[in-house]
Amino acid sequence: GLCCPGRDPACLSAGRRPDGSTGPCYCDQACARTLDCCHDYAQACPVIPCVVSQWSAWSGCAEPCKTTYRIRTRHIIQEPRNGGEACPALEERAGCVEYWTRQGTECQESLIPALITTAGFGKARKKRAAADGNETAGYCVEFQLVAITPGCLHSHQSYTRWMHYLREGHTVCVECQHPALHSPGQHCHGDGTGGQKNQLLHWQAVGNHQCKGTWRRIRQLDTCSCPSVHSFLFI
């Protein structure tokens, strides 16, 4: 009936050991390493890992009209016992931007520098826009990456791995689509529209505030044909 966490010399019994010898034996978690468990330790004290729930839905952005974060959570269904695997993180954050205030009016702030994320996010966005009847033809802009902060390579969460494709000197393609497509000019903030030729423009990756840099606008493409790897999306 003994099952003790950690190393506990007081978690002692008398009986048979796995090698058949008799005498003092232990029922603490460390006995598997010290090879002095009681013979029935594995059956009486089975390893039980942590079990957590599925992730909740993502929350809304913490604050409207600015680059901030959203949260999703999960809870512990079963605590680990007898040396079982520890529980993983119960909260996860991701960068986001909302274009509407809590009162339902459109944000007036100019979101500069350009805020970008992986182009894969655009597939779900287009489906939502079509369902809402807001699907508007967008455009793409090609940029040459000039400078990138080291923080882009230090992103290890699953939702930031796309940042590893940002490399100095590479040409990238960034799509502007609803709802980042703003009226009345129908362009995305930070896309370089109206800027001088060869002007250095600033960008920042959503999801990791340490990943940012500069680029030069090459040209605008009214028909998007971006490659799958070096493609991004204005937020």
From TrEMBL:
Sequence ranges assigned to domain SMB in this UniProt record: 1-50
Pfam family, one: TSP1_spondin
PROSITE patterns the UniProt entry points to: SMB_1, SMB_2, TSP1
Residues spanning the membrane: none
Keywords: Disulfide bond, Glycoprotein, Signal
PANTHER family hit by this protein: RPE-SPONDIN, SMB DOMAIN-CONTAINING PROTEIN
Protein name per the record: SBSPO protein
